[in-house]
Amino acid sequence: MIKRTLPILAALAAAVLFAGAPAFGQAKKVKIATEGAYAPWNFTDASGKLAGFEVDLAAELCKRMKVECEVIAQDWDGIIPALNAGKYDAIMAGMSITEKRREVINFSNPYAATPAVMVVLKSSPIAKALPLGDTYSLNKTTPEADKAIAAVKVALKGKAVGAQVSTTHANFLETYLKSEVEIRPYKTTEQHDLDLTAGRIDAALAAMSYWKPLLDKPEGKDMVMVGPSFTGGVFGSGVGIGMRKADGSLLAEFNKAVAEATADGTIKKLSMQWFKFDTTPQ
Amino acid sequence: MDLPFLWNTARELIAGVPLMFQLVSLSLALGLVLATLVALVRLSPWPVLSGVAYGYVYVFRGTPLLVQVFLIYYGLGQFEWIRESFLWIFLRQPYWCAILALTLNTGAYGSEIIRGGLQAVPWGQVEAGRACGMSGWLLFRRITLPIAVRQALPAYGNEMILMVKATSLASIITMLEITGIAQRLISQTYRAIEILLVAGAIYLLINFLLTRAVKALEHWLSPHLRDAPAPVLPNAALVH
Amino acid sequence: MELLSWGDRGWGDELFRATLMTLAVAALAFLIGLVFGTAGAAAKLSRWRVARAAADGYTTVLRGVPDLLVIYLFYFGGSSVLMTIASMFGHTGFIGVDAFTTGAIAIAIINGAYSTEVIRGAVLAVPKGEIEAARAVGMSDALLFRRIMIPQVLRFALPGLGNVWQLALKETALISVTGLVEIMRQSTIASGSTKKPFTFFAAAAVLYLILTTLSTWGFQRAETWSARGVRRA
């Protein structure tokens, strides 16, 4: 009896499994993933909707490409694997173009550029010891950049520093400060802010375009940017749209749209609106 | 299949085993003490205390562990008076937050298991103990406890396995145990599936060994359920 | 408290919708899990050694690996498996599975492992004598299944399935990592944007408690109902 029911049940299980099938592969519509937790690049507002620089920019780019777009939220730490797994077609989530990432996905030309900088609490001794300095490029080793990094090493020795997991910022800490500081990986930047305020970590590293608007808000009133800021090298060459390697035609379309939006000042306008400074790549 | 990659991944992930083992053993040990206290309080005749214990068990069994972890780690940091109290020495470290969340969680589930074990002690055995003149601690130590432990062991073994699995949530609050390292590796190589499969295999192996150990303990604690050694009688064949 | 209010200023309506999402995923996962569980139990009780071994492997693996890993695996691996299957039928290109379907199936598979044990136990609990009696009065396999097995297996399995349902409800919290906006994700979003984590995670805990309390009550009613024909000692 049980023997005979087995195939029927297996068939039933299969039927239920594939009941969700209509959701797979529909008509051409570009799905763009963002994180929804990286204000003002992208975030979720109190009405539950995605908003921010990249959400607006996505709408502009899609208008130029004459395609229908849908922006969806995806946790940062799985954003590249899920792209390659076919969950969506493009990533616009403040993602820097790095060599490492280029090995697994394609990038459009950059639509934003922003240096990375560290933030501490105003009450912290680091705030005094390591005042905000210049921006250095890590594209090649220079004595100036080496000196700047050495100063950071001295000021942060033995401290706990947070960065979002799987970012260029976490990568910088792993590459340059691994032996000096305790690196704490966070799922979102909002979470390292909570821990910075709570005093669990001594500093957090993220993009200047993320910090600037935050420090103007009441939540950021106790925080201050410190030390040198960096671009290039492990930080990559600007922020671009990530796509699957196989999607060559989509890449061409996005590049064209980015070029148009840069040329007509749309990107600058959105950047001033969301970041209060121009992040258009030079 | 990229065997060298899998092998390297496994070696990196195994570096997270000691931390996982610490989290499991410390929270199980603390949780067992808590669970025993809660179980005894719940079986006690004081309604208020027993009500509090019931409330604790109810809340921790009725909510996901992830909520408990977030509430303890991110939630408690919201209050300045906690951040300024001595508690913050512990709560500021993700390690102790993870231990606290896991302990409170296993304490709630464990207390139900222990309560079940204690209630499953046959009344006749206790009466027999009394009849032999035992009472109080002696009765508890010689009769109630051994029987309760034997009754509760299979369920508690399950709880231990659940705790091993639960430590994976510590990765969400910045701890680099097996799952935390796996996520770091994924972020460096983007080879999610292979890394997750290796991590899964490591957990499976740990739980397999744990299951074996609990089974061995059960066997050792249940001599009365084992077959007696075959009697050496000349006419043994006739007995069967 | 204003943070939890209804409308565009507060997060009350978002949390309510997220609760419905949690319920929907949990319910779908539980039902599919029952199918897996029934199949698993049938395999465990079958005479084929291969089926028994497969079912044993299924429950051992799913109960030994953290649920978080299983969900990640499904999220990242689900599509590639589907694409491999689809390419066998000549379909090429990407097949995406949304977070809802992935989450529901991942939890269903985890839950199915628990359901397997519950249903197997319930089948074994049906007294042998009743089955023999049914055969003696000449019932066919189908009739025996319908009249003797199903009613009793359902009754014996009900308390265990109640537990499995509670597990499904709580496991849905883990799907938040795939981006599905259920209770956990909504409270994470809200606490990130308002910097009030305690408020929102406490609200989440309360919502889960409400769901589990209502379920306990519901299953108790169902147990009483299913046991209405049983004489009590």
Describe the structure.
The complex is a heterotrimer of chains A (282), B (240) and C (233). With 282 residues, chain A is an alpha/beta fold. Chain A folds into two domains: 125 residues, Periplasmic binding protein-like II (D-Maltodextrin-Binding Protein, domain 2, 3-Layer(aba) Sandwich), CATH 3.40.190.10; 120 residues, Periplasmic binding protein-like II (D-Maltodextrin-Binding Protein, domain 2), CATH 3.40.190.10. The longest helix of chain A has 16 residues. About 6% of the residues of chain A have low confidence. With 240 residues, chain B is mostly helical. Chain B folds into two domains: 60 residues, no CATH class; 145 residues, MetI-like (MetI-like fold), CATH 1.10.3720. Chain B contains twelve helices and no strands. In chain B, helix 2 runs antiparallel to helix 3, helix 3 crosses helix 7 and helix 4 crosses helix 7. Chain C has a domain of 159 residues: Orthogonal Bundle (MetI-like fold). The longest helix of chain C has 33 residues. The mean pLDDT of chain C is 88. Chains in contact: A-B, A-C, B-C. At the A-B interface, helix 3, strand 11 and helix 8 of A face helix 10 of B.
How many DSSP E strands of chain C? 0
CATH topology of the domain at 24-182 in chain C: MetI-like fold
Q: Which pair of protein chains has the largest interface, and what are the residue counts?
A: A-C, 45 and 57 residues
CATH architecture grouping of the domain at 24-182 in chain C: Orthogonal Bundle
Question: What is the distance, rounded to the nearest whole angstrom, between the alpha carbons of the first and last residues of chain C?
Answer: 51 Å
**Beta-strand percentage range of chain C:** under 5%
Count of domains of chain B: 2
Query: What Rg of chain C, in angstroms, do the CA atoms define?
Result: 21 Å
Give me the CATH fold name of the largest domain in chain B: MetI-like fold
Q: What percent of residues of chain B are in strands?
A: under 5%
What top-tier CATH class of the domain at 24-182 in chain C fits best?
A: Mainly Alpha
In round numbers, the mean pLDDT of chain C is 88
Largest sheet of chain B: none
CATH 4th-level superfamily of the domain at 24-182 in chain C: MetI-like
Biggest beta sheet summary of chain C? none
User: What oligomerization state is this entry in?
Assistant: heterotrimer
Shape of chain C: flat
Number of helices of chain C: 8
The number of strands of chain B is: 0
Helix segment tally of chain B:
12
